[in-house]
Write a structure and sequence with these properties.
403 residues; alpha+beta; paralog of FGE (formylglycine-generating enzyme); 2 domains; 4-stranded mixed β-sheet; elongated
Length: 403
């Protein structure tokens, strides 16, 4: 609505007219606040309509309590402000202070609208997770099957914004998934970054309105065999090594098999991560060359590359994870992404899907035979979808966006 003009004549007739306009404006604000409260009442009803048993199995009572607290808080704030505005309609004589009240209420309405959208997304997320609890589960222990810690953040097992668990397990394949929360990041690399290639620019902002899951580890030979019944890898003999010699087309076949296990649940699908999803997960909130910092000297603590791999891939999860609990994002095997290779168009984007066609598919992350600069977060590479190599594998994404 915005504030009214402050440079007013002191003429008594004009002052009466202006005061009358302000009263009308305050009345409109009161109606807007009441409408906002009704929105939160509807959100509360939507939350109560979710099946209680399946919600508690997936998110735990903590997420439901947080949702109820958010709804109660915003209903209370709106009711208090509505009462203030009602009282002001009766007693307002100070025009400047009335302007302040209008501006304050406008800001409150803007904020509650944003929070209502976020909360509704959280409710939709809970409904989606309810749809496939038979296929995925929250890890029951503090350590996963590899022996690494189950991801928790700030002591919580679930994301407070969405209610989704930070870590889940796909039962049929044994694949462990880690949540990448909704948010934004700068994709690509700045012009002065050491080892930078021209196709890493322009640096541009990418936003994800919905969280999604990424494989905690690269897909292993054991998981591939469990799903596909064979093992294409050149270097066999260790089930926890990443599967390699897999083409982009072959990886898509694996993903299709995983999706069969979801039973056609609406809005849910496994996929190869997009380039943007992969880099968002790799960076985990960082802006440096690697998620571990800018210096090559630390890379060996987080990934296998020419400096330490001894000419072969290694078992997943043996190095340190990045800040979000994802392992081997730098090195070990290069990882297929869903995208066709193309030059970044520039400009801010949300949930990008690009380009629509091409001749080569993208892979990311560098591999056991790559130099350090090829393992940077922003580094890009590509090849034919039919290409296979013993340093080329993949990890999966689980996309929970509604269509």
């Amino acid at each position: 609505m915005g504030s009214f003009q402050r440079d007013r004549p002191e003429c008594g007739i004009w002052r009466f007219s202006e005061t009358y306009s302000l009263v009308l404006g305050l009345g409109a604000l009161r109606q807007a606040l009441a409408a906002a409260r009704r929105t939160w009442q509807q959100i509360e009803e939507e939350g109560q309509s979710l099946p209680g048993d399946s919600r508690s199995q997936v998110q735990g009572n903590n997420a439901i309590q947080q949702l109820a607290s958010t709804i109660n808080t915003w209903q209370g704030r709106l009711l208090d402000q509505e009462q203030r505005v009602t009282q002001w309609v009766v007693s307002a004589v100070n025009l400047a202070e009335t302007d302040d009240l209008i501006e304050e209420t406008d800001q409150l309405l803007d904020e509650t609208d944003r929070r209502a959208r976020e909360t509704r997304r959280g409710l939709a997320a809970m409904a989606l997770l309810d749809a496939f609890t038979a296929a995925l589960s929250v890890p029951p222990q503090d350590r996963d099957a590899v022996g690494n810690p189950v991801v928790k953040r700030e002591g919580s097992v679930s994301d407070p914004a969405s209610g989704w668990p930070w870590e889940m397990v796909h039962e049929a394949s044994g694949i462990v998934l880690v949540l990448a929360p909704a948010g934004e990041f700068e994709m690509g690399s700045p012009a002065g970054e050491a080892g930078r290639d021209d196709d890493e620019g322009p640096l541009h902002k990418v936003r994800f309105d919905w969280p999604f899951y990424l494989g905690k580890y690269e897909v292993t030979q054991e998981q591939w065999e469990r799903v596909m019944g064979s093992n294409p890898s050149l270097l066999k003999g260790e089930s926890r090594r990443p599967v390699e010699c897999v083409s982009w087309t072959g990886a898509q076949g694996f993903v299709s098999k995983l999706n069969e296990s979801l039973g056609g649940a609406a809005g849910l699908r496994f996929a190869l991560p997009s380039e943007a999803q992969w880099e968002y997960g790799c960076r985990a909130g960082t802006t440096t060359r690697f998620s571990s910092g800018d210096h090559d000297s630390r890379l060996g603590q987080y990934g296998w590359y020419t400096g330490n791999a001894l000419g072969q891939p290694h078992r997943v999860g043996e190095k340190q994870p990045n800040g979000w609990g994802l392992y081997d994002m730098h090195g070990n095997v290069r990882e297929w992404c869903s995208d066709w290779y193309g030059i970044y168009p520039g400009g801010d984007v949300t949930d990008p899907k690009r380009p629509s066609s091409g001749s080569n598919r993208v892979f990311r992350g560098g591999g056991w035979y790559c130099d350090a600069q090829d393992c940077r977060s922003a580094n890009r590479d590509r090849n034919s979808p039919s290409c296979t190599s013993n340093d080329l594998g993949f990890r999966v994404a689980l996309v929970l966006q509604q269509a």
